[in-house]
Amino acid sequence: MPLQAVEPRRLYRQIADQLRALILCGEYAVGTRLPAERDLAARLEVSRPSVREALIALEVEGFVEVRPGSGIHVISRDPAPSAARLKPDDHGPFEIMGARHLIEGELAALAAARATPAQIASLEDALTDMASEVGAGAMPIGTDRLFHLRVAEIADNALLLRTVTELYDMRNNPLFEAMGQHFENEKTWRLALAEHRAVLKAIAAHKPETARAAMHRHLQRSQARFADTWPHTGEASAVPANAATV
Predict the structure, then answer these.
(1) How far is CA 108 from the centre of its chain?
(2) Residue 104: inside a domain
(3) Beta bridge partners of 225
(4) What is the DSSP track for 134-145?
(5) Helix axes 48-61, 37-44, angle to 10 degrees
(6) Same domain, yes or no, for 216 and 157?
C-alpha cells in the first residue's frame, strides 16, 4: 500500500476528537455534564484555551451545549443536521490572534513612523464610527476590521495588508464566531475601543515603540478575554468513573 501524506492536526481538533469519541461510545451520555474545563486540561496535559476551542468545536457540531449557570452538557451523539461544519484548515481563535499579535505590533510601529495627518484622521474616523456602534449596542466587527486594516495600509506593503486582511477575516469561521457569541459583548467591546484609542494616540504622536506596545497590549487582552472564565456557567462538574482515558 503506498504511503499517504500525513496531515498535522491542530491541538484543539485532537482534543475534540477524543471527547467526541467518548460521547459516541456512551461514556459521556446524552444529558450528562462534561468535566470542568480545568479538569479536562489537567487530564490531557494541555492549556485551558485549547480545551475551550475543542469544546466550542463540539458545540458548533451539535454534540454539546453551553448552559448558563450549569456548564457544558452533552445533547446528542450525532452531529446536528443544521450544524456548521468545520473545515480541515479552520484555525482556532487563539492561533489566529497569536499570528496577529506578531504582525500587527510591527505594523503599528511602522504606522507611527509614517502616518500622515490624513491617515491619522482616517483612523480617528474609524474609531468614531466604532464608538457609535458600541453605544448603540451593536457589535462593531466592521469598524474594528476597518481600524486594523487602515493601520496596516499605512505600511504601504500590499503583502502585509493582504496578510492582515486574511487573518482578520478568519474570524468568520464557525469556531471563531461561536467563541465570539460567548465572550464578546458591550463591555468587552468598550474595553477594545479604549485599547484602540491608545494605539491611535501613539500613532498620532509618532511614537513607534509606544504604538507597538499598545497594539500588543490590545491583542493580548483580546485573547485573554476569550480565555477568561465561561460567562455564567458553573465550573464544578461530575466526572464519570469510566472516563479516565480522557
Answers:
(1) 21
(2) yes
(3) none
(4) HHTT---HHHHH
(5) 110
(6) yes
Alpha carbons 34 and 73: distance in angstroms, whole number: 6
Using DSSP, state whether 246 is helix, strand or coil: coil
DSSP for residue 228: S
Cell numbers standing for residue 4: 499517504
Q: Which amino acid appears at position 89 of this protein?
A: D
Whether residue 186 contacts residue 134, with contact meaning beta carbons closer than 8 Å, is answered with: yes
Grid coordinates given for 46:
494541555
The total of structural domains in the chain comes to 2
What's the predicted TM-score (pTM) here? 0.83
Amino acid, single-letter form, for residue 216: H
Segment holding 74, helix H or strand E: strand 71-74
- Which of 60-69, 142-151, 193-202 has the lowest average pLDDT? 60-69
Question: Is residue 130 located within the same domain as residue 65?
Answer: no
Distance CA 224, CA 109 (A): 22
- On whether both 39 and 72 belong to a single domain, the answer is yes
Residue 245: its pLDDT value, please? 33
Containing structural domain, residue 164: 93-226
Q: Which residues pair with 73 in a beta bridge?
A: 33, 65
